[in-house]
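REVIEWER CHECKLIST
Item 1: Sequence provided? yes
Item 2: Single chain? yes
Item 3: Sequence as submitted:
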Amino acid sequence: MAEIGGDMVDVVLTGRTYDEAAAFATAEAARTGATLVPAFDDPRTVIGQGTVAQEIVEQLGSAPDILLVPVGGGGLLAGILTWMRERAPHTRVIAVEPTGAASLAAALAAGGPVDLEHLDTFVDGTAVRRVGDCPYAVAARQRPMTVNVPEGAVCSEMLEMYQVDGIIAEPAGALATAALRTGVMVGQDQTVVAIVSGGNNDVSRYAEVIERSLVWEGRKHYFLVNFSQEPGALRSFLDEVLGPDDDIVLFEYVKRNDRELGPALVGIELSEPTDLAALLARMDASPVECERLTANSPAYRFLVAGG
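Item 4: Structure as written out by the authors:
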């Protein structure tokens, strides 16, 4: 915006989420008398977003059989549903939301827009606590299929798009294509379009993306291991528990001479997800006490989700 608008645009970065930024913008518009341009909850915005459907059909030369649309506030979905219903009613439009921010699915289940109690902001482009009233009204009438994609699957898709296709996509941009890998079934001869809605991704974020992807794919696991405070305890653990293709990617341990046991945080990366069963079996057989960290534990959330 600063590049295009120059001195005419004052860019204000505020809030940790879309909802906080939108609340600030609404208050600022009321204070200054400026015109507020809603991101999704306005018929005019929805109409503008609906032109994406027109562009897709024009570029394809015909309407697709299936069209997957990422959903945050719902404006893009509502515009596409409206355009397709009038001109290509045979197209099956699928609404795709991240599992941790499925505000449309919650609204359809409740019979109206509701505030999500918990909001995962990783897929930040679609992390909206409450779907818009205007988009909801359209979706409630047309009842598109809705699917949720886990954030880890989105990360795997981001890496696939970058490594295979050379596409840098933000999490919300990889959301719709990720749905094709996590349960949306399509026919072999069907024309399928998945909207890649954005590429606003910082390269420094890829470390977290890789981490989440490995955990989602079942290749990375974390454990609390109680080591004996004797020389050679770590060597015994490596020999007895670690498989030939397993790799320790995290080891945090502080030796305390006044204790018999010392806990260590250990991260293990597997070559294949199927190697986990053998690893757990070796841990059970080992005299070393090992506790696998679950997704609900604070330590796990700190490591994988940054808190």
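Item 5: Key structural point noted by reviewer: The chain has three domains: 1-36, 38-212, 218-305.
Item 6: Recommendation: ____
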